[in-house]
Backbone:
């Protein structure tokens, strides 16, 4: 056969595409193979090996054929044979179309390669984009978490929009005003600024549009009337051209810092007061000595005079010297008292609403060193929802400090764990209760009755003033101070203070 | 109470010194007042019969310092402390060091007078006992060593025979020594002998 050699030469021969299309239409599966008994085309991917055998059998049936087109239905094993003449005709057509086909094939391959490349690029782009999207989503999530959970108010101000574009939920917490209504009331935040600070803050607010920078501390008044200190900082955000188009900022509640600073200042004052008290006690001791001298002289002169008078032979005029001396000594005593009066000073009443827990924390902070040195463990059991109490914080701090020190000293040398428990509670709606419980030696029944007496002390070198001063302070604040023995060991000191609101209603 | 007994008053406060002095004198007591411990020491009055009424707080030498010094030097004059503003540890210190009392100003005159009379009586008694002791010691000093050995054995209740054997002397020699001891100690009985010994020994144990 003339085509035989030709086919051997070109093993890759593939029938006319039109035929292939037709075959595709007619059969679900078809194949063709060359006279060399090797498969030339198979429509369904790699031919299964049992079928190979069938094909070989098929070739045995039709030997010597140049090219056999075998068509197989998948459902059955029906093989349709195409006539050799028809096959030859097809071969011719095929021969004519080979070049076209080859060209098409090339084109197809090129196109496929091109498409594959495009597809690959696209896939890469999609992957990259997905990654970016995930990253963006993560970043946004992180930002959202940060913005919504930080205690500071995060804000973004648009220069062109001339308004705040974003305010984080902490605004509600700190300002006590709803964050949603922000868009309707863009000046909401500045309305809350304390009247004394508003002008300054407004000026800074105007200035930041130019500078993009801001660092201001100011007070705000919450709807509940509470005053909070805010530190507000802004940072410029620039576009590609370097033009500031937004300002991002953080507004932080620094009330606690401010309070701590104030407290520190007050504690310094208090320290000075305590030093003054010590000095006063020292001076009082000296003055007692000084005062007892003229008193002793007066008594002795008088009794000497009496003794002389009882002796019949005494001339009463001999007593004038003694009586003059009595007068002088009386005046001397008066002079000493006048000195003493100069040392006593009245402090103005400075009662206000106090957060008892904050106050106690400040006291603890102050006694930290003593607690550490005495190896005392502190146990705070502060009731969170305690209403404000009315009192002079310095005075109450002083009393609490005395009690804390008393407890620390009471545990010195005591066996077992040394623990100071400070508890706050609401005794009744009008009264807050503070308890300081120690694990010290405790006190005897005899000591219990004298505990609050001035100059009564069970401690060596103790002046015996702490508890008596503490009681008088607490009583001056409208509260009570008393002590109880703990069931296990140690002592609890309790004091009460009036609840702020309740007091005002009276 | 001896006629010669004097109340020595030491206080830096002139008014107190004057007033307390007047009070004591009005009660018939002899008083010598000093503005400081140093002045008192300078007067060399510490050997004289009497007692000290002493202020605790004084510049330079305090009352407690003076007490310490007198004690260290072996003087036994009774001391009554006065204080304007005393504390317990101070009082304990003074009392432990042998003070008769520690009284706080101002004090009732009777309290001081009572204490002063007690102190003077104590001083007189002390001086009397001291005089007896001194006399007994002087008498004992007259004994020869052998007489002393015999006295110790007699006081222990030993018989002459035992003493003679112990000292390796004759009984008659023991009897001579005994007689001599009785004469020298001016004793009329064994009881007198023992009393004299006890007086001296008592001082030694003090």
Residues:
């Amino acid at each position: 056969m003339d085509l035989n050699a030709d086919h051997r030469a070109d093993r890759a021969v593939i029938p006319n595409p039109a035929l292939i299309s037709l075959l595709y239409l007619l059969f679900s599966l078809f194949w063709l193979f060359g006279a060399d008994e090797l498969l030339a085309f198979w429509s369904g991917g790699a031919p299964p090996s049992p079928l190979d055998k069938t094909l070989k059998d098929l070739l045995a049936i039709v030997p010597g054929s140049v090219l056999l087109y075998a068509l197989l239905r998948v459902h059955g094993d029906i093989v349709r044979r195409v006539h050799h003449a028809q096959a030859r005709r097809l071969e011719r057509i095929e021969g004519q179309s080979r070049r076209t086909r080859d060209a098409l094939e090339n084109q197809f391959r090129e196109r496929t390669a091109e498409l594959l490349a495009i597809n690959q690029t696209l896939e890469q782009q999609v992957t990259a984009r997905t990654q970016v999207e995930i990253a963006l989503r993560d970043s946004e999530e992180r930002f959202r978490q940060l913005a919504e959970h930080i205690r500071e108010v995060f804000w973004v101000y648009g220069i062109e929009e001339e308004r705040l574009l974003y305010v984080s939920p902490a605004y509600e917490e700190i300002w006590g005003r709803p964050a949603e209504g922000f868009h309707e009331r863009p000046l909401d935040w500045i309305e809350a600024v304390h009247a004394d600070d508003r002008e300054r803050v407004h000026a800074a607010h105007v200035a930041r549009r130019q500078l993009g920078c801001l660092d201001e501390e100011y007070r705000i008044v919450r709807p509940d009337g509470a005053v909070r200190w805010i530190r507000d900082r802004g940072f410029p955000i620039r576009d590609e051209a370097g033009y500031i188009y937004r300002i991002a900022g953080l507004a932080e509640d620094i009330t606690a810092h401010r309070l701590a600073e104030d407290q520190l200042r007050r504690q310094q004052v208090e320290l000075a007061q305590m030093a003054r008290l010590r000095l006063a006690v020292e001076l009082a001791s000296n003055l007692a000595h000084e005062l007892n001298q003229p008193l002793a002289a007066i008594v002795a002169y008088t009794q000497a005079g009496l003794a002389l008078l009882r002796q019949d032979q005494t001339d009463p005029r001999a007593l004038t010297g003694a009586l003059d001396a009595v007068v002088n000594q009386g005046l001397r005593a008066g002079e000493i008292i006048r000195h003493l009066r100069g040392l006593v000073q009245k402090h103005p009443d400075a009662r206000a609403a106090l957060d008892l827990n904050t106050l106690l924390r400040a006291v603890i902070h102050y006694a930290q060193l003593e607690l550490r040195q005495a190896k005392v463990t502190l146990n705070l059991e502060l009731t969170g929802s305690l209403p404000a109490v009315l009192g002079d914080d310095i005075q109450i701090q002083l009393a609490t400090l005395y009690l804390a020190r008393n407890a620390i000293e009471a545990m010195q040398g005591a066996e077992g764990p040394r623990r100071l428990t400070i508890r706050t509670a609401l005794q009744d709606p009008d009264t807050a209760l503070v308890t300081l419980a120690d694990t010290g030696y405790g006190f005897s029944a005899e000591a219990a009755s004298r505990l609050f007496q001035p100059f009564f002390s069970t401690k060596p070198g103790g002046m015996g003033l702490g508890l008596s001063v503490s009681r008088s302070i607490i009583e001056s604040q409208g509260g009570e101070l008393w002590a109880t023995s703990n069931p296990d060991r140690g002592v609890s000191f309790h004091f009460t203070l009036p609840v702020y609101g309740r007091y005002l209603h009276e | 109470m001896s006629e010669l007994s004097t109340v020595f008053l030491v206080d830096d406060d002139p008014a107190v010194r004057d007033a307390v002095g007047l009070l004591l004198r009005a009660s018939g007591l002899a008083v010598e007042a000093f503005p400081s411990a140093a002045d008192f020491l300078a007067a060399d009055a510490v050997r004289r019969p009497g007692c000290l009424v002493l202020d605790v707080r004084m510049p330079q030498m305090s009352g407690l310092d003076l007490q310490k010094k007198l004690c260290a030097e072996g003087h036994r004059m009774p001391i009554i402390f006065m204080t304007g503003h005393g504390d317990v540890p101070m009082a304990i210190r003074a009392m432990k060091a042998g003070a008769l009392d520690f009284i706080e100003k101002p004090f009732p005159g009777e309290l001081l007078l009572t204490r002063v009379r007690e102190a003077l009586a104590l001083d007189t008694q002390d001086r009397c006992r001291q005089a007896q002791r001194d006399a007994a010691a002087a008498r004992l000093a007259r004994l020869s060593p052998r007489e002393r050995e015999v006295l110790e054995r007699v006081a222990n209740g030993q018989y002459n025979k035992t003493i003679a054997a112990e000292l390796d002397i004759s009984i008659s020699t023991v009897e001579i020594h005994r007689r001599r001891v009785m004469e020298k100690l001016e004793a009329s009985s064994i009881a007198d002998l023992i009393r004299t010994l006890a007086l001296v020994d008592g001082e030694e144990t003090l």
Summary: The mean pLDDT of chain B is 87. The beta strands of chain B are 6-10, 30-34, 50-55, 79-83, 101-104. DSSP finds nine helices and five strands in chain B. The interface with chain A takes residues 13, 15-16, 18-20, 22-23, 25-27, 57, 82, 84-85, 104-110, 112 of chain B (CB under 8 Å).
